[in-house]
Prior knowledge:
two-stranded antiparallel sheet; Immunoglobulin-like; 1 helix; globular; mainly beta
Amino acid sequence: MLSRTLSLTALLLLPVTACAQDEAPAQPQAVDTASGELIIRDRSTAGHVSLRQGAEGVVIRIEADGLPEDARSQWHGAHLHSIGDCSSEDFTSSAGHINPSGRQHGLLNPEGPDNADLPNLWVDATGSIRAEVYTTRVSLADTDALPALLDADGSALVIHAGSDDQTSQPIGGAGARIACAVITAP
């Protein structure tokens, strides 16, 4: 009786197994999150950047503490840079802005904005940032013909020493780069 039950069970499972083998392979999932450690010029980690893909853009959350004394109690320009590399002392290894559209820099520029432009960030008196911004000019992965932050050479979020005036070229007078985060997939 036991062997007849096992044989019947095996026969019942056989078609299910055969059907599973005939199914098409699973398609890769779209990337919907990314992140990066925000470092400052002394190479210490100051915080974290997390990104989430939305239906029409990307939400970027920046949380940092301990930014340098001379960066406190003021606004700072922030941009998305075209190479995921923060290895150089001045963070210029992240190259220039993501800007395949060739538009002018600045959220307030009638000929802009470029794909990399973000609003200014406030660093408080303790050297902390808590901000969440949204952009419709990039994607995490290549979607809707928007430049992908997670392309072959990656990208970086860079915070500058001064405020971005959102109109002048090439970076709104925001000055030197003081913090950088390489954006990576989980």
